[in-house]
């Protein structure tokens, strides 16, 4: 199985020609092309940097049988053309076994309502948490770690990594950090967890 890192929180899992796309949002410049090439799409929550509603709706117009999964709000925004998932669900998407974990977006501010957010464990090995540091409650080999945004904090990220205890750590959701900020994340989080924080250039793949 390979992972391709795209801009921000978007990744593709590939194996045997199958392509499972996660969180194609408006911060991902080639979202339309990625969605067009996908065999199934997972969405963690409805924030625009994870969920390009127009792109997915247009692709569903073209391919009504494209499997799309996400919280209830995703299904609503797509006019019922997605499958709603919640914590505890187990699905088959593009030939990958996926389990669903978590319920809510991380707190940004008490004045900002928290939307539903689910994380996905793909093939029992790789966890994409969306915008949350909620623990998946299962063993994780590779953790995709969000490092930037109005809800993130490096110290909390490090505690999340310690609690999940993966064997590999890949940075996602990094677009709001400069190169200096991404290096700072690598240094601090790596130092606190004793696990290297990998920063994959957009469009590159890695074997999992």
What features would you describe in this structure?
The structure is a single chain. This protein has five helices and 14 strands. With 208 residues, it is α/β, with parallel strands linked by helices. α4 packs across α5. The radius of gyration is 16 Å and the shape is globular. The model has no long low-confidence stretch (mean pLDDT 97).
As laid out across the biggest beta sheet, the strand order is 6-5-4-3-2-1-14
Low-confidence stretches: none
Structural class estimated from helices and strands: alpha/beta
Shape: globular
Topology as H/E string? EEEHEHEHEEEEEEHEHEE
Measured by DSSP, the beta-strand proportion falls in: 25-35%
Biggest pleated-sheet summary: 7 strands, mixed
Amino-to-carboxy terminus distance: 6 Å
How many H/I helices? 5
Number of strands: 14
* Global mean pLDDT: 97
What's the alpha carbon Rg, rounded to whole Å?
Answer: 16 Å
Which terms would index this structure?
208 residues, alpha/beta, seven-stranded mixed sheet, 5 helices, 24% helix, globular
Write the layout of secondary structure elements.
Layout: E1 2-5, E2 11-15, E3 18-22, H1 31-37, E4 40-42, H2 53-62, E5 68-70, H3 72-77, E6 83-84, E7 90-93, E8 96-101, E9 119-122, E10 126-128, E11 142-146, H4 154-164, E12 168-172, H5 179-193, E13 197-198, E14 205-207
